[in-house]
């Protein structure tokens, strides 16, 4: 079920903790990414992880959470100067033997406002993601308001 959310950076600490322990791993990944929360990302990714992603123009692979987080997701996809304004929507669903998460981020940078959609299939061992295949739309520019 898709849901409209308030800014991922304005979640009350208690509600954030509760959602991190009761939410599916894919949703926790999306929320942590939207908040650029490296600790929460490390908590949801297993070590080692079998990670591959496809973005416009590049295929990414990693087996260590630190590479996924520091060198890929928060190092190249969403640079420190990129502000993730909102987690617009997140949807997690279970498939036979695998889970799926899709989420939409509103991002602001020097080039303006953008939407970025990502879809991921993943496996878990307990509450941590052990295997993930992710597809990204790239930064889709929004017109000026």
Topology:
Elements: H1 13-22, H2 25-35, H3 38-44, E1 45-55, E2 58-62, H4 65-77, E3 83-95, E4 98-109, E5 112-125, E6 128-136, E7 140-141
Parallel strand pairs: 1-6
Antiparallel strand pairs: 1-2, 3-4, 4-5, 5-6, 5-7
Describe the structure.
With 145 residues, the protein is α+β, with helices and mostly antiparallel strands. It has a single domain (8-141), classed as Nuclear Transport Factor 2, Chain: A (Roll), CATH 3.10.450.50. It is built from 4 helices and 7 strands, in the order αααββαβββββ. It has helices at residues 13-22, 25-35, 38-44, 65-77, and strands at residues 45-55, 58-62, 83-95, 98-109, 112-125, 128-136, 140-141. Strands 1, 2, 3, 4, 5, 6 and 7 form a 7-stranded mixed sheet that branches. A hairpin with a 2-residue loop joins strand 4 (98-109) and strand 5 (112-125).
Would you kindly provide a brief summary of this structure?
Helix content is 28%, strand content 46%. It has 145 residues and is α+β, with helices and mostly antiparallel strands.
Output the radius of gyration.
14 Å
Largest sheet: 7 strands, mixed
Count of beta strands: 7
Structural class: alpha+beta
Calculate the terminal CA-CA distance, rounded to whole Å. Answer: 28 Å
CATH class: Alpha Beta
Helix content: 25-40%
| CATH fold annotation | Nuclear Transport Factor 2, Chain: A
Write the CATH architecture name.
Answer: Roll
Number of helices: 4
Q: Indicate the proportion of strand residues.
A: over 45%
How many structural domains can be distinguished in the coordinates? 1
How would you describe the shape?
A: globular
Average pLDDT, rounded to a whole number, is 88
